[in-house]
Design a protein that fits this description.
By secondary structure, this protein is mainly alpha-helical. It contains seven helices and no strands. The chain binds fe (ii) ion (2 copies).
Amino acid sequence: MFTEEHYMIDVDRFITEFDKGLRTVFGVHPSARASPGSELPDADLGAAERRHAARLMRVNHCGEVCAQALYQGQALASDGLCDVLDQAAREEADHLAWCERRIQELGGQLSMLNPLWYSGSLALGYLAGKLGDSWNLGFLAETEHQVEHHLQGHLERLDANDVRTRAIVEQMKRDEAGHAGTARSLGARDLPAPAKGAMRLAAGVMTSTSYWI
Ligand SMILES: [Fe+2]
Ligand SMILES: [Fe+2]
């Protein structure tokens, strides 16, 4: 039976989540942990290297927008995992803030397609959440594993002297590995190979597009 109280709570939650979404896509974000490398002197990079670093960080920022949406979608669909995912979601919020700030320092811009990445990932997270906890955790573990691998690729493409950007990417990579480990320790199922491949394909579309727009 759908009571008035039930209805009120759902509306309340909807507004909270909607607000979270708007702030993820359009807001400026504080971080709980200081940005890694902020104590280091900024490297004297050439214009092309700065632009390249800003674009790579825009890709990572998009990834973090997606992470926010995935976690939000999963939490909406599966109340059971809320607390467990909370710590990881908070770390993702730091990543979002760090990327945002570094892009600004490098003189770059955020992706114009963030609302699109956000809504797609929210739907995907919700779907994963509805598949039950072990598949949901499996999806999370695989996402984090792929992100970790992707960040390693960025470390290879970033200028060796760009210590500030590198410090952020290195810390994010450590955090993502931790998130994958948490998901596995909680009973994540190993996803079938075609699902992993589809995820890699979707991530590839996002990363190659957001490097440019
Ligand atoms: Fe992250
Ligand atoms: Fe993560």
